[in-house]
Fold this protein.
Amino acid sequence: MNFSNMTTMIFDLDGTLFQTEKLAIPAFRRTYERLHAKGIWNTYPTNEQITSVFGLTTADLWKALLPDANDAERAIADEILLEEELAHLEKGYGELYPQVPETLSYLKSRGIRLYIASNGGERYVKGVAQAMKIDSFFTRIYSAGEYKTARKEELVAKLLAYDGSSLAVMVGDRRSDVKAGKANGLYVIGCDFGFARENELEGADEIIHDFTQLRKLVCV
């Protein structure tokens, strides 16, 4: 791809911009404590089980972590988790990957329109962007929770319909990001510093191991 002609970059949030585990693991722990107190669930997930669901839609996340719960119980769990995530953000939990704000600032200075496309809930995604002070870099923030999409391919399609660009790049750390980019005819940059498992980024056009590598690509 000729990056000099690129107009738009679309970023996943968790595992791409944001070190999610530093917020999610303590928030999930507290959520499960509250669920246990309500008599809804008695077992606790491992850290590996928690990180394995990053990037999933809310519905798929709870199917994985509360497999035997009913819809009402999963709705309660989701409400509690959001409360805990926002509360932990206020307490200072969570961290961006190194040089994310500086790199986003550089990309925006090159005239590139920046977006977030996340499978998370609207209040969570926008809450993280605001708490981490990166929301101002983005033209718009898209979340599955706000746009009611079941797959990231649909969410990215909605974003592209708004943006109108045919020269866009998808940046993410999960198979869903690669699939979403490819389904929409985009060049895909896989991030191998987040939660990607072996072969998860198969099909990406480029793989980076540090967020700042995006600057070098754009300079080509």
Notes: Residues 63 and 164 are 35 Å apart (CA to CA). The chain has a mean pLDDT of 93. The longest strand covers residues 113-118. Residues 71-90 form the longest helix (20 residues).
